[in-house]
Amino acid sequence: MAALAIAAYQFLPDEMWWLTGWQVGIGWAGVAALLVGAHRLPRPERLPWWLFAAGVFSNSTGIAVASVSEAWYGLVDLPTPADPFFLGLYPACAAALAVLIRRRDPRSDWPALVDAATITTGFGLLAWVYVIAPVNLGDPMDRLAHATEVAYPIGDLLLIAMTSRLLRSGGSRGAPFWWITGSLTAFLVGDCAWVVLDNLGVTGEVLELPWVQRGLESVFLVAFVLFGVACLHRGAREVAAPADARPAGLGIGLLALLAGASLIAPAVLAAQTASGEVADGWSIAACSAVLFLLVVARMALLIRHVERQARQVRELARSDELTGLPNRRAWNDELPRALERARRNSEPVAVAILDLDHFKRYNDTFGHPAGDQLLKAASAAWHATLRDVDVIARFGGEEFVVLLPAAGVGDARRAMARALAATPLGQTFSAGLAVWDGVETSDELLKRADAALYEAKAAGRNRVEVAGQASRLAA
């Protein structure tokens, strides 16, 4: 329906009130769609849509105010009574975007912020050189008019910054997200077209062509409609849904945009050099310096992220995914070090291998998820009974190993008895215990503990057996 209304706009009579009424009607229809869609959402989720509705209402109402001001009062020079309405779009939409960004990314996302700043700085130089700087704000006769003229590109830069940050946010990327992005892009495209025509000095000439003027005005009508389409979509609620933590990424599209923004300063310098006069050297230099610092900051954040990921990979490589305990690799690194410390300090050290009794039968009876829960609960319960200096690791399957520094046979037996009593869900384990003889290798020590484990199983399970050749060591 909205598409038909926009298409029909191209064929309306060339009469101001027809055109004005049609534009305002489409704008207010977009506002109505936003209010209806927001009413369907839970009350806490309505705020950004209300803000979008306020911006669209202000901007579309400005069309009517501009027509009345021109037709009845002859007010066409800046500032007109319509300018506050047109400018009202920017703070309202920026506030709505700020709410969405905050809800989608509750935590600070510095890489996204730096990316948005880089894009905005690059386009900000274009706005300064071709729109803001040429305006003589020092002329007291036209100061308010010039300030009004400057307010539009500043508002566009605000939308560019917020839209860039929204695109770098986490959360759902469903249809409503892209409708919002499309609407904001349409506003920016329309404003940029006006700026380009104005800088070429052909605004009046070009806009005298009805198809050009109506085509350009249709861009803003599309922007009005897309907000309403986004809010009425069934996925509108997901737009403000918090996102899970996700790694900072640099896709090809984002890299291209960042590269393009970073090249704006040298491109402007090249253009002015080719024209024979570098009129904005200081502005270009300042923009280049800011862009350089932003690129350095982005590289630092990226390097820090890579280092953090590398640490996480190393930690994951040494920990068991299910129980969170050290894994076999970590155990194989720790045991030789523990034996060397025991050698230097002339202290005993004990090793135990634990195996949950009848674990396969438990899995077959209750299912593998229940088996995983048993492994997690048992390992946590056993860990709680050990000393801070003791180490428990998952050796594989339902088998665990325990390192007991400075523990003789008696201390090690008591530690294993406490762990056996703490086994949850009415389950038991069999364990083989070996105390280092001061000479054997770590593999030999584990082999003795493993032999004792098999003795425990053969003796009926639910017990701790001490390996031979360890009885000569004092408790």
TrEMBL record:
GO terms for molecular function: diguanylate cyclase activity. Keywords: Membrane, Transmembrane, Transmembrane helix. One of its GO terms (biological process) is negative regulation of bacterial-type flagellum-dependent cell motility. Residues 347-469 form the GGDEF domain. The keyword Plastid does not apply. InterPro entries: Diguanylate_Cyclase, GGDEF_dom, Nucleotide_cyclase, Rev_trsase/Diguanyl_cyclase. The chain crosses the membrane at residues 16-37, 49-73, 85-101, 113-132, 144-164, 176-197, 217-236, 248-269, 281-301. The keyword Transmembrane applies. GO terms for cellular component: plasma membrane. NCBIfam families: GGDEF. This is Diguanylate cyclase (GGDEF) domain-containing protein.
